[in-house]
Amino acid sequence: MNLQIRIAEKINPHLFYGWIMLAVGFLGLLATGPGQSYNIAVFVNPLIEELKLSRTAISSAYSLGTLIAAFGLSYIGRMIDRFGPRLMIVALGLCLGAVCMLFPFVSGIIALSVAFTAVRFFGQGALTLGSTNLVSQWFSRRRGMALSITSLGFAVGNALYPPLTQMLIAGIGWRMCWVLQGVFVLALIIPIAGILVVNKPEDMGLLPDGDPKPSSGEENGMEDGFTVPEALRTVTFWLLAVGTAIPAMLITGMIFHQISYFEGQGLDAQSAANIFPILSVSMVIFMVVYGQLLDRFKTSTVVSAGILMNAVALWLLYIADNMMLAGVYAVAMGATQAAAMTNASYIWPRFFGRKHLSGIQGTAFTVGITGAAVGPLPFGIAYDVFGGYHEAVLGLSLLPVIFGAAVFFTRPPTRAARHEKSE
Question: b or e along 325-336 (b: 16 or more beta carbons within 10 Å of the residue's beta carbon)?
């Protein structure tokens, strides 16, 4: 009997061990911070000044790195299915920490592109995939709530990393700041994941949610869930994958151009920046609410509503020409982000089972991150062509309407419906 099982068996009689795994997943998402846009954005101006690169060059390197990073996630997903979340979270945390500590050695656009690719791959993509997969293995009936709480790790990182990173850059420089972020990742992930993580409840004779006996869905879902090739052959997979990629594209584009947009609407830069705290608070609140909705109501209905919130946010953005309307937009945008983050992890085990979850979810992450990588482009093109963003905002709002309606009528593939409850 290994150390993890011995620890788990001592804790579980007093507290369902899935809650410990939820805490590990939360910390895993917090540790992805160095690879997230909210952290990297703080480094842009120091990189421009020291490397003598244009803003366009750095933006292009970042978009290219994000796009390239997306295409390795399906392979990482298959490795998580093969070796289990514990080993992979430790390995991915080690890699992310090492990449952060090597980032200071970049000296030109090629090295910077490689560094962006690596930090986005291990941070934004792979470690996120491993952390959310772990939580999905331990919860089924309460998976929506569990994943929404786990996703608060991202929201907390969104609040903490930018000011702390800015303070460190001002105090010790951007290079040493990357080193300290690497040390933080290693110190947080390696011991916690290595000592505490048990891959799935079945490894210690338990069931998801701590249920005393299996329901018919859980009894078969783990063993006979869809394989990756089987999932990819279904229309449902691609509809859901694109349906979750559309929010990723729109949210990234809207956030990327948000300050510029509101300046064009007559708000000063500081007022435009003040919208972000409203958005963050809204996201935290709606994450918890949205997870509860997923657990209580029909999956396709709730996911559809979450996608349609993108259209509502875009319509509010279209008319927001004062601080009050901008604040209303920020609340809707926070709800949109909460739905998008929870959907991206929740729907795959619901529709396709847990046995090959990481491979399926990794492929879906590839589609979603590809959408995020190209998100700023249509808004930028609209600005260059029309001199503003209104045409893009209004035109792109049709996408969540179309795909939200399509997801509403989506039903699980027949095999998934037999193996794990999807509504």
Answer: ebbbbbbbbbbb
- 221 and 198 together in one domain: no
Do 161 and 243 share a domain, yes or no?
no
Residues with Cβ within 8 Å of residue 395, at least 6 apart in sequence = none
Are residue 311 and residue 198 in the same domain, yes or no?
no
Query: What total number of domains does the chain contain?
Result: 2
What is the domain extent for residue 222?
216-419
Contacts of 409 (CB under 8 A, 6+ apart): 300
Helix (H/G/I), strand (E/B), else coil: 169: helix
44 with 63, same domain: the answer is yes
Contact 55, 48 (CB under 8 A): yes
CATH code assigned at 364: 1.20.1250.20
DSSP state of 122: I
Same domain, residue pair 313 and 272 = yes
How does pLDDT run along the chain (423 residues), one tens digit per residue? 577 788 878 887 888 888 999 999 999 999 999 998 888 877 877 888 888 887 678 878 888 888 898 888 888 888 988 898 999 999 999 999 999 999 999 988 999 999 999 999 998 889 998 998 899 889 988 888 888 889 888 888 877 888 888 889 889 999 999 999 999 999 999 999 989 998 888 888 888 888 776 544 444 444 457 888 888 989 989 999 998 899 988 888 887 777 777 878 887 766 776 777 788 888 888 888 888 888 888 888 999 999 999 999 999 988 888 888 988 988 998 899 889 888 888 888 888 888 888 788 888 888 888 888 888 788 878 887 888 888 989 999 999 999 999 999 888 786 544 444 444
d(CA 374, CA 64): 9
